[in-house]
Specification:
heterodimer, B: 231 residues, mainly alpha
């Protein structure tokens, strides 16, 4: 059980890094859902099934859907966008914008 | 310069939180209320799932607060976005492909059954109104992904939401009149572990499930009905 926990936490950390580093925003949202899904497995391991269900439903499902719909509303991702070049990701400095 | 300011702010916030965390007496003294609930909760409320006993019987008013927060979030999204605010010339989204349409039709009844099961067995097994409500909302949102032109009826959603919230508060007021405490458990406790047990807790969880499901389905379909930027 110890190594399963270590593996799940490693998946969480790697997906959290992927959220920051992925150039594709849709993929970043998917990675943030993976963080929540792995967290819900951690909740099952610590024997909190109620919290695990909430985390899986709200963290992995609902917030992912809402983030994707927000991306669509903001014009950062659209249906049938897969062949178009992705918009430049916000660089964070703000000086060149 | 701006990066440096951000770094300074993040570092200062981290330092502040670490100082706070160092002074917090985490784990000591042990939470004695938890032991009491574990020892007496099942007998006092009749709910086999102790989490439900805490959420609805011991901390029912907190649950009412959570419902109010969700209501405020859904109302805010409805106020800012939605079909009424849509540009008339905005393009509608295209229909989904075969896989999405077939999967939405297949999954709809299964998701409804799973959601209702989770809501109705909230006092027996892990889960309850919040989790089941989100599953129900997903069931009603999934067909919209495939067929964006069919919208959910927001008037019906509003009625379900309002009635479910009124039932929750109504049961609380009934308890206030009968027992002198808001949201105190009423009715017979029944046999521990039976479907019809735990008094009013299943009724409260059905109200929570319907309210959460209606709110989240309305919220997601409102977001989905807005036009995509640039289209």
């Amino acid at each position: 059980m110890y190594w399963i926990t270590v593996l799940v936490v490693a998946v969480m950390v790697l997906s959290a890094l992927a959220v920051l580093l992925l150039p594709n925003l849709l993929a970043a949202v998917a990675a943030s859902s993976v963080v929540s899904l792995a967290l819900s497995v951690v909740f099952v391991i610590v024997r909190a099934p109620d919290v695990a269900m909430t985390e899986a439903a709200v963290g992995a499902g609902l917030s992912g859907v809402i983030l994707v719909l927000a991306l669509r509303r903001l014009g950062l991702w659209g249906l049938g966008d897969d062949n178009r070049p992705q918009p430049e990701r916000f660089s964070g400095t703000g000086d060149d914008a | 310069m701006r990066n440096f300011t951000s770094l300074l702010f993040a570092g200062g916030l981290g330092f502040f939180l670490l100082v706070l965390a160092a002074d917090l007496p985490l784990g000591a003294p042990p939470m004695l209320a938890g032991q009491g609930v574990l020892a007496e909760g099942a007998a006092a409320t009749g709910a086999a799932n102790l989490v439900t006993a805490v959420v609805l019987a011991y901390r029912g008013i907190d649950t009412l607060g959570e419902l109010s927060i969700l209501f405020a979030a859904a109302a805010g999204v409805g106020l800012v976005l939605g079909r009424a605010r849509r540009r008339p010339d905005a393009e509608a989204d295209p229909e989904g492909g075969f896989i999405l349409l077939a999967a939405a039709d297949l999954l709809f009844p299964l998701l409804v059954i799973v959601g209702l099961y989770i809501v109705l067995h909230g006092h027996l097994t892990p889960g309850g109104g919040f989790q089941g409500g989100v599953v129900l909302a997903a069931a009603f949102f999934l067909p919209l992904l495939g067929r964006p032109r069919n919208a959910l009826d927001h008037a019906v959603i509003g009625w379900i939401e309002g009635l479910a919230g009124a039932v929750f508060v109504g049961i609380g007021l009934w308890a206030l009149a009968a027992r002198g405490e808001f949201l105190a458990p009423l009715l017979g406790k029944g046999t521990l572990g039976a479907l019809f047990s735990a008094g009013t807790l299943p009724l409260l969880y059905i109200a929570v499930g319907l309210k959460v499901g209606a709110e989240i389905a309305g919220l997601m379909s409102t977001l989905q009905e807005t036009e995509a930027a640039g289209s």
